Amino acid sequence: MRGDSCPVIDNSLLSEADLLAQVRAGSKDAYKTIVTRYMKQAYYIALGFVRNHQDALDISQEAFVKAYRKRNSFDASRPFFPWFYTLLRNLCMDHVKKIKWRGEVPFEEVKILETEQEDFDMKRKLWRCMDSLPFEQREMIILRYFRELSYKEIAEFTGKPIGTVMSTLHYAKKKMKSVISQYLGKSE
Amino acid sequence: MEHKKIKELISCYLDGELETEQRRTFEAHIQDCQDCRRELEGMKKFEEVMGMLKLKKPQKEVWEDYWSSVYNRLERRIGWVLLSLGGAILLFFGLYKLVEGLIMDASLPFVLKFGILVFLAGIAVLFVSLFKEQLFVRKRERYKEVQK
Description:
The structure holds 2 protein chains of 2 kinds.
Chain A: H1 16-24, H2 28-50, H3 53-69, H4 80-98, H5 116-132, H6 135-146, H7 151-158, H8 162-184
Chain B: H1 3-14, H2 20-32, H3 34-52, H4 60-104, H5 110-146
């Protein structure tokens, strides 16, 4: 009967709150929309922490699996990503504690300095410097520069007051600036 | 505002995160303070370089296959749960039959039956204890995730 057939609802048109309510009820289709919406964000944050493609992919996917298993503990009326970020962050933190930097520099090949060798050295030193920052400082650098979040959004993601975000970023930037200054000279 | 505090605000200024009043005070100080101006120039260069650095993009297929990998992991987890449940049922049934056979077998001496039963009871106690420990660890992990 044509008139009785159910209309097909395009999940991508639903609001996040509606989708999350469906996910809580066990809808994998709704979860697919959520995952597709945030997969890039999750992957790049993980890449900033764990430094290589395969680990970033693995950890970000594992975080989505974990989030689905814990779907009953999130409040569907609140945004998904800050809640999900806590799971992702903890997985990344565990990974970083276990696996030390093996020299990967996951930056796009954009030339900043004139000579190739200098350019490579600076990026490598920058990454090494970032890798040696305390976890919270590194987290702020990743969220600020590689996800381009505002201080307010960083505060929301990390659960820290804006004042703490400002000062943590200030100290992190100061350390990283000293690396860049070696190559650009003068300004330290 | 004191000089040291102004220095700390340089990165907030460049990130456009200062309130109007703070920004005015900052700009007025910068006009008069050569040290802070130098620091600001250095930080501008830093921001410029950081703005050029982008994380490597993966191949397009990664995004196309992303959901199916998450889905497979979800499905696999259900598979593991069912497998473990089935295994536990088979194990308990086998043990039950073993104990039943031992008790019913009149040819075995009492001491041997007693020894085997005590041995099995020991394994059961150890299993329950390990299971409880796992539950405890999992509970603590969950608390860790709630913390920010």
